[in-house]
Amino acid sequence: MRLLFIEDKTGFSETLAKGLQRLTGEAHALQWLSPTTANWEADRFGLRFPAHREWDLLDFALVDLELFDPKNTNQYEKEDLAGGLRVLPFIRSAAPWLPAVAYSHLFDEPDRALHLAGAFGFDAHLPRGWFTKHSTLLTQWEWVLEQARTSRRRALMGWALAEQAPAHIEIDGSVAANLEKSFPAWNQAVSSCFRFVDKVVLEPVTPGFSGATTLRGFVNSTALPSKGQWFIKIGSPFKLSQEASAHEALRRTAFPFGRMAPLLWPGVLVERGAGVLVYQFASGTTAMVEHLSGIKRDRLAQIVGRVLQVVRLLHEGRQKDRIPLSHVLGEWTSARRLTEALKQFEVTEEIGLCRSLLEGHAKSALSKSVELTVAIVHGDLHAGNVMLGEPDMLIDFAWTKKGPIVADYAKLAADLAVKVNAIRRPSFDEQVAEVGFAGLLKGAGEGLTSDDHEVFEHLFRMYLAEALTYDLGAADKEWLAEVVTG
Length: 486
Fold this sequence. Notes:
Layout: E1 2-6, H1 10-24, E2 29-33, E3 60-64, H2 82-94, E4 100-104, H3 110-120, E5 124-127, H4 138-157, H5 159-162, E6 168-170, H6 173-182, H7 186-193, E7 199-204, E8 213-219, E9 229-235, H8 237-252, E10 269-271, E11 274-281, E12 286-287, H9 297-314, E13 319-324, H10 325-331, H11 335-342, H12 349-359, H13 364-367, E14 369-377, E15 386-388, E16 393-394, E17 401-404, H14 406-419, H15 428-443, H16 450-466, H17 474-485
Parallel strand pairs: 1-2, 1-3, 3-4, 4-5, 6-7
Antiparallel strand pairs: 7-8, 8-9, 9-11, 10-11, 12-15, 13-14, 14-17, 15-16
Helix pairs in contact: 11-12, 14-15, 14-16, 15-16, 16-17
């Protein structure tokens, strides 16, 4: 078990580790953060909270309510508990699924203190000396943890549903076995999402390089409409939580597409590192990526035409803006993926530009400003995030913000080039002509600047380079390397 442990007294971390090992018979991984009076007013109290997907590695947080000694141990004042209470919002913001257990000198028994924990916003509470008592039983510890997990479920789906039994999962055995390799607890997480039905029938959806595994789900319940389906994403709790938060934020602002694909729950449900996010779609809705295997150019053109109509709705209210080229390329590409991909190349002019960007060099080609067409941009427009149905729509707005509209077109163009053999070409210029100016950018409408076209080419090449870090075959990577450097 992996704990985020926030405590200001050095010696107690050792006490806690020994107490947990005595209880459970196994060692626990503690990520210990210790605030001090000197850094308490600093940003995030001077603590190095987990970054991004580091949150995925944690099972729960254990937080000292009394991060500083109380003035009077016989009568607590509210400021005496300010330490733990001020830390909690950071945990809830970054990892809303993570059970957070408080401990303090208040009360002697865990069951008496659970109501207290709820009043403070935590999911459970433990007396400070609980871990040193040899009379404490493993069953008591497991009970506290289950109460904390149940509290998180209640926060997501309400009190009544959180108490109901999980649904039975029906899925092909080979598909289930593959899922268990990456997410051993996927079954428990998915079944817990569907506590309102007895059974869910699942089938796999073609992967879209999004980092998540996608399933299509069907339920049979008299309490639900007879038609409809669920798209279930299994992956990183942190990444899926970002997606859910962005979707809900856009829905509340009446943003286009925000209300077209409602989430089953307004957040991610997590079981032992397996995050699950569920969308609801009309019957017959499919992901664009499901149509790409063996597709012909004419059929692809029809689908792309439908997608462009949706993207143009997203890009309404376009304006012109002058932006440093280095800022554009740095903001709309992945430094981590490019760094990994560029290790495979000799230095050509374009590859040198990429490396200068990553190394922060003020190369002349990067230091200039460019006039671009900007609007609200999806930010991750690949075929796995385009849903075709009645109506067509987009999902996953975790990276949605104002930016150059050619970033969306370049992302989709690169994704299609990687996934559709029928439109692959042997050189970069030919590939641009095939999926760029001859197709996607024409669909962008009038008014694009020459800088828009230049930035499209830069981003297109960089997105193709990033694709070298995907799980592709040797032939696919060989073709990509030739196109990126050509």
